[in-house]
Amino acid sequence: MKFLKIQTRYIPLMATAAVFALLYIIGLSSFSNFGSLGVFVNLFGDNAFLGIAAIGATFVILSGGIDLSVGSVIAFTSILIASLLDKGFDPGTAISISLLFGICFGASMGCLIHFFELPPFLVTLAGMFFARGLGFLIHPQSLGIKHPFFLNTVGDSLPVKLSNGVEIPFTASCFIAALILALIIAHMTGFGRNVYAIGGNEQAAKLMGVRIGATKIMIYTLAGFFSALAGVVFTLYMQSGNPSSCVGLELDAIAAVVIGGTLLSGGVGYLAGTLLGVLVLGLIQTLITFHGDLNTWWTKIVIGVLVLVFILLQNLVTKMTKKRIKST
């Protein structure tokens, strides 16, 4: 019975791994250079800001909530950094201010959700419009960055150089570091256990002594931090700020989390699955790029199909779990 329980819990994660392996095999069999180390490394570098945003979204969805402000916060962070640099601030100060904004912004939404008992969907929807509008107030259009740290240092000194000439971009290193930090928080702290408990059954968690309010506020604070960090990485990647960028990226982040096997109802999911979900989205885009003749909008179509399939799979797993508990 214990074996069945473990197997049922890991079904979505194993399905994600199978999809990733299948897509990678398709790429290997279709394109001669697809299996190069450079292509694999670029999956992390090109999708780093999405991956970091998805990490924050994972904590929110694990708790049974949702965050629709992710894309707007990333866009705001990018234009805030670009504007501060344009005014003469050094990169460290500009990045610190943007991360502080993300923390405060997330904490504010968490407080609204807890103290006023408002639905996370509506609060983060308002946050999405607020952050987007605030970005346009700072600067109404794209603003290029001319600071040498962004133009030279990030691309020349910070990448990790491998022996075969392939470089691990600094953005990929940021993604990996954020993932390690998130894994520690989720699986080695009391806060992480509380997140799973609230997502599994909030009333039961309350009876167990979990501080529901403080945990929820911390969840959205953490999500705000990861969204702002994703904005910093996005700015490093694009070398510019743009208040109109990343429209709909919050949906890509949610899609990566769902494809990674995290239940939308909360309580079940793994950051390793989120990593695989992000890489699956990156593989789809890479395959379409390698093909050359396909319209890039096929990416969205394939992602939509995968999200639907994994939602159906989650529904099946939930029913199997309930049936097993009932029979026990």
Task: Describe, in short, the structure shown.
The chain has 14 helices and four strands. It is mostly helical.
Structure commentary:
- There is one protein chain.
- This protein has a single domain, classed as ABC transporter involved in vitamin B12 uptake, BtuC, CATH 1.10.3470.
- The protein has 14 helices and four strands.
- The protein has helices at 2-30, 37-46, 48-62, 70-86, 91-115, 120-138, 148-156, 170-188, 190-200, 202-207, 212-238, 249-259, 271-291, 298-327; strands at residues 143-144, 160-161, 167-168, 240-241.
- β2 and β3 form a beta hairpin.
- α1 packs parallel to α13 (271-291), α5 (91-115) packs antiparallel against α11 and α8 crosses α9 (190-200).
- The longest helix is centred in the last third of the chain and has 30 residues, at 298-327.
CATH fold name: ABC transporter involved in vitamin B12 uptake, BtuC
Question: SSE order, as H and E?
Answer: HHHHHHEHEEHHHHEHHH
Q: Determine the structural class based on helices, strands and strand pairing.
A: mainly alpha
Helix content: over 70%
Span between termini: 9 Å
Q: How many discrete domains?
A: 1
Biggest sheet features: 2 strands, antiparallel
Strand content: under 5%
Radius of gyration: 20 Å
- According to DSSP, the number of beta strands is 4
Strand order of the largest sheet: 1-4
